[in-house]
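Ticket opened by: R.M.
Priority: normal
Category: complex prediction / small molecule

The reporter submitted a protein together with uracil and asked that the result be attached to this ticket for the collaborator who will pick it up next week. Submitted input follows.
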Amino acid sequence: MTMLEILEKKKLGKALNREEICFFARSAAEKSVPDYQLAAMLMAIRLQGMTDEETAELTMAMRDSGHVADLRSIPGVKVDKHSTGGVGDTTTLVLAPLVAACGAPVAKMSGRGLGHTGGTLDKMESIPGLRVGLTEEEFLRQVREIGVAVVGQTGSLAPADKVLYALRDVTSTVDSIPLIVSSILSKKLAAGSDAIVLDVKTGSGAIMRDLDSSIRLAENLVRVATLAGKPTVALISGMDQPLGTHVGNALEVREAIDILSGRTKGDLKEVSLTLGGYMLLLAGKAKTHGEAVAMLEEALESGAGLKKLAQMIAAQGGDPRVCEDVDLLPQAPVQKQIFCARSGYVSKMDTAALGMAAQSMGAGRLRAEDPIDFSVGFVLQVRIGDRVTPDTPFCVLHARTEEDANRAEAAIRKAVCFSEQPCERAKNFLALVTKDGITRMD
Ligand code: URA
Ligand code: CA
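Result attached by the on-call engineer:
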């Protein structure tokens, strides 16, 4: 078999068989064929598409290109959660301790920030002393002992994806449903959980910006994960504004702790409880989603969730006192309150631009090797639909210098639109996708 033969076949829109797909995935992982042939194949897939069976074969071949974690030594049903990436989206730090406090083990491998979106590992590392680089042995032991661990990959998971993702980024082939599905699910399947809850973002800060393509992506993810033997549900959630009010690494940890302490409510809390509810449901800990959410609310009100977060932080070498005193988290030297400076209603936000504003303050990376400043970012004090006057608080900037604060202020003001007419609030959830079909919530 040669790459040229497979390329010829996909170019003409024919379905590839298992051997051909395995050859392609192996060639990518081993870099045993030149990049130009891999890139040509990616473009052929982007233009000709793949059947569900081909996508499932590609997903499994990519999963098997590296280490597959074995979580069988942890008793119970292990449910993973994955988000396609957002801004101010700290659901993992809220729901992982709550779900664990309700008795379902959470063995989670998370990622770093990418482009305008934040990453759980970077946020966690803003906690003084905390380690995300556990060995597989340490990771499994921690979940057996305290029920929860959130870490970086414990082995080389899906190396084929690493190669293909980098090529997609530079060949205009990111927006291909079979390529997104195989990329996300190869890593999720290699991480070893028994069931998966997917949070597929839609809107101005999401990989798929319109609802129909987000639903199509969710359907494909659910179909392929189900074919691979993992019960999976997907929620489509709105990214027309940052999910939480806080954007930036230590700031987002602060908001998660504020929610677990019962001091803060809002969309981040609602989305975390809804996603966590589906995790408990798939773990068999509740009979209905309503019952599952009530369990999580109880764990929040009793303080069991916050206590679980403190245990997890301590187990990973971090300072658990941040759960009692959020001022122990890194703080930026410049903090500046700005106001709306006009009357009207908040009508629209460019979420990706808001994420980039935080990134350019130092909260994210432009290149993989860039360092991060954990302390910087902003707290956005308005939501879509809010009525404002000139002296309504708009945003608190947390910056390294006055100059950085001023630059971020300009970018944030440009990314938030106002109108004279009242505007509807943004919805948190737009659809639920299961193996049985789609339920629209819009
Ligand atoms: N996230 C991934 O891991 N892969 C994609 O292709 C898109 C989002
Ligand atoms: Ca809302």
